[in-house]
Amino acid sequence: MRYSIPEDVLYQELPGEAVVLNLATAEYFHLNSLGRAALELIRKGADRRTMEETLTREYNATPEQIRLDLEAFLKRMTELKLVTTMSEA
Amino acid sequence: MKRSDTPPVSSFFLALEAWWALLWAAIVIRVPFGRQMILRRAINNGAIIRRNRHGNLGSWVIRRAVGRGARFHLKSMTCLEQSLALVWMHRRRGLAATLRIGSRRDGAVLRFHAWVVDPESMPWELNDQENPFVPLAPVTCG
After folding, report:
1. What is the pTM of this model?
2. Fewer beta carbons within 10 angstroms: which end of chain B, N or C?
3. Distance CA A74, CA A62 (A)
4. Distance from B78 to chain A by nearest Cα, in Å?
């Protein structure tokens, strides 16, 4: 599954974290290091599996832990309409 | 340098226009679709749309009018509402103005603030360099 970032979403990096704000919904979310890395992968067009593999390598964590963290992150971001799911071609 | 002033009558009508602009801003940002459209337009760089047909009406005159307009509303106008009114009033007169929305960490709280930058004239309130709020920018995918 792939995700995209709606055009109404604004982003800013702050020291040690980042903020995403959706203008349409006025919902915002602040991201930790993993969230920033995940959002960067979404921005580059990575699919879910690629994101899991990349983050597992980068964060030296178990694939299961990364999968759970990423799932929770994407679920929350989707609920807040800060990312949207794209149907696979 | 002495600033040119507007006559009292013009000043009154300008404040009245600001009052309506503030009211409209307060309404439109509470409507999801309106908020989306209006904020997107305001955040995009405000190129000079048409010639300034209001002579040398300065940015500070508009700011003062918005300040006056805000004082005569029943609710206190937020920074976003005031900034939107400012952007509209500037652009209506062919003056460039761009909305900025920024955030900053204040202890455990994440604070947001809206302001206007006007590349054509003196910065007002807070400019990008002095502002402790970091402006948010659209995400570019690809």
Report:
1. 0.77
2. N
3. 18
4. 14
**B139 to A17: CB separation less than 8 angstroms, yes or no:** no
Q: Which of A9, A17, A30 faces B139 most closely, judged by CB atoms?
A: A9
Out of A20, A26, A39, name the one closest to residue B35 (CB). Answer: A26
Q: pLDDT tens digits for B116-133?
A: 887 555 545 554 555 578
**CB–CB of B141 and A4 under 8 A?**
yes
**β-strand pairing of A84-86 with B98-106:** unpaired
Pairing of strands A2-4, A84-86: antiparallel
| Interface confidence: ipTM more than 0.90 | no
Return the CA Rg of chain A. 12
Q: Which residue has the tokens 């995009």?
A: B44
A11 has a chain B CB within 8 A of its CB:
yes
Helix axes B59-71, B79-92, angle to 10 degrees: 140
**Separation CA B132–CA B48 (nearest Å):** 28
Query: How many CB atoms are located within 10 Å of the residue A56 CB?
Result: 17
Q: Is A23 on the interface with B (CB under 8 A)?
A: yes
**Would you kindly state where each structural domain of chain A is located, as residue ranges?**
2-81
Contact A23 B135 (CB under 8 A): no
Sheet of A27-31, strands arranged across: A27-31, A17-22, A9-14, B137-138
Contact check, Cβ <8 Å, A10/B43: yes
Distance CA B125, CA A72 (A): 40
